[in-house]
Design brief:
The protein is of the alpha+beta class. The chain is about 50% helix and about 10% strand. It has 17 helices and 7 strands. The protein has a 5-stranded mixed beta sheet with strand order 3-4-7-5-6. A two-stranded antiparallel sheet has the order 1-2. α2 packs parallel to α4 and α5 runs antiparallel to α6. The two termini are about 25 Å apart.
């Protein structure tokens, strides 16, 4: 299974640039046109046609979304991308992030950042709500009808979460996400975006993660901020992992492995010149386990293979290292909230 993943990464199995749902493009088109701006002269550079927006299951390269988002920021002069009742002037995130970086811990930093955003009247409010051992990050939009495709909701919730991961150099797992709307046509995108259980038709728009992460120290410096901003919005919509942490190092070892299955944890530890107990502790400190890392790799490979109409569900189960198709289906549903068949039929439209 791992050797198949390695061939995929090396290009021996055709793999295109990382993509995202076209509904984000549709959201920006709707907003720009609502504000009297014709986006199609710009979009024509990327060979995107108007009729493609009718099928919200189409995917586009992230590079296109990144450039189009920056274009929208520039012409609208609004970090909310015209999706809220009031504009948020460009540059607000820089001020908020520098304020957060002045704190010692993530909890203090997020409190300062949220406080600044709530001080400005720009169409939404952010709440940090303690709930037992968890913290709930809640977003309240003053006019949700302007956020037709829920782009702003994703952008704010993921933006604060991803920034917290970057500030601390740690991957902070989201436990659950709640939406105060029904599942949209592109709802399976949320499995990739949030990586956790999704609950629709709830009374809140929020994400939940462990409160213990608020005690993490802020390790980034002001001089690092320019590099972070230069990768926006890609870094917000892809859930990146710090490239220097042990989770990423373990992933690299797995992806380079030539065996028919995953390498033994003891072998991975040896390659990192550590005893297994120490590596387990390092991964635990990043909110991960070896099994969770393997599941992420299996999920990534499964999502890719489901885009290929020539692969049956049984083929994909075998390629992802499952001896039984039923076990793969149960695991995939646990990862994404839907079965592989529904994911392929309703989202990818390849059968």
């Amino acid at each position: 299974m791992v050797s198949a993943y390695k061939r995929l990464l090396s290009g021996k199995i055709a793999m295109t640039e990382k993509t995202t749902s076209i509904h984000y493009i549709a959201a920006l088109v709707t907003s720009l046109e609502r504000n009297g701006i014709d986006p199609w002269p710009y979009l024509s550079k990327f060979n995107i046609k108007k009729e493609e927006l009718k099928s919200l299951t189409t995917r586009v390269p992230f590079s296109v979304l990144t450039r189009f988002t920056r274009y929208a920021w520039a012409v609208l002069q609004d970090e909310n991308l015209g999706l809220s009742s009031k504009a948020l002037p460009n540059g607000a995130f820089i001020y908020a992030s520098r304020l957060a970086m002045s704190a010692e811990s993530l909890g203090q930093g997020l409190t300062l950042m949220v406080g600044l955003y709530n001080y400005i009247d720009h169409g939404y409010k952010i709440n940090l709500v303690p709930d037992g051992n968890d913290i709930i990050l809640e977003l309240v939009l003053k006019d949700p009808s302007l956020d037709d495709y829920h782009f702003l909701a994703d952008f704010v919730l993921c933006g604060i979460h991803r920034f917290g991961c970057w500030l601390t150099g740690k991957e902070i797992p989201i436990k659950s996400v709640t939406f105060n709307f029904s599942p949209p046509p592109f709802h399976t995108e949320y499995a990739l975006l949030y990586g956790c259980r999704q609950e629709f038709n709830q009374d809140k728009l929020s994400i939940r993660f462990s409160r213990s992460f608020l005690n993490l120290a802020i390790v980034k410096k002001y001089s690092d901020l320019d590099d972070y901003i230069a990768t926006t919005p890609y870094n917000i919509l892809t859930n990146p992992v710090d490239q220097d942490n042990f989770t990423t190092k373990v992933k690299r070892i797995i992806e380079a492995h030539d065996g028919p299955d995953f390498p033994r944890f003891e072998d991975v530890s040896q390659q990192l010149h550590m005893v297994p107990k120490t590596l387990r502790q390092k991964l635990k400190g990043e909110g991960n386990t070896y099994q969770q890392i393997k599941d992420v790799i299996r999920k990534d490979l499964a999502l890719y293979c489901l885009q290929q109409p020539n692969y049956t569900i049984a083929d994909i189960a075998e390629k992802t290292g499952f001896t039984e198709t039923g076990a793969f289906i149960r695991a995939f549903k646990n990862w994404t909230g839907v079965t592989p068949g529904i994911y392929r039929k309703e989202y990818l439209k390849v059968i």
